[in-house]
C-alpha cells in the first residue's frame, strides 16, 4: 500500500515514515532504515523519522550507528 503511495508521490515523507513502521512491525530492519533515511532526507526536522531510525538501529543491534546518529542529532539541535 505504501509502495503505491510512494510511487504516486515520492516527495511525501509520511509515506516513507509509515512504510518504515510497517517494516518495523515485520522486523525487517534494513528496510526500516532505508525508508526512514528517505523520510529524513525529505523532511530533516520530522522527529518521528529519527525515532523510527533509532528504534530500528536498536532492534538490529547497530549500536555504534545509533550513537553516531544521536551525536549528530544533538549537535544539530
From TrEMBL:
Superkingdom of the source species: Eukaryota
PANTHER family recorded: TETRATRICOPEPTIDE REPEAT PROTEIN 31 (PTHR47678), TETRATRICOPEPTIDE REPEAT PROTEIN 31 ISOFORM X1 (PTHR47678:SF2)
The protein's name: Uncharacterized protein
Lineage: Eukaryota, Metazoa, Chordata, Craniata, Vertebrata
Amino acid at each position: 500500500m505504501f509502495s503505491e503511495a510512494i510511487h504516486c508521490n515520492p516527495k511525501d515523507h509520511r509515506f516513507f515514515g509509515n512504510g518504515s513502521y510497517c517494516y518495523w512491525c515485520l522486523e525487517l530492519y534494513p528496510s526500516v532504515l532505508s525508508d526512514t533515511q528517505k523520510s529524513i532526507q525529505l523532511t530533516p526536522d520530522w522527529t518521528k523519522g529519527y525515532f523510527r531510525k533509532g528504534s530500528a538501529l536498536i532492534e538490529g543491534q547497530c549500536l555504534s550507528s545509533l550513537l553516531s546518529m544521536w551525536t549528530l542529532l544533538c549537535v544539530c539541535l
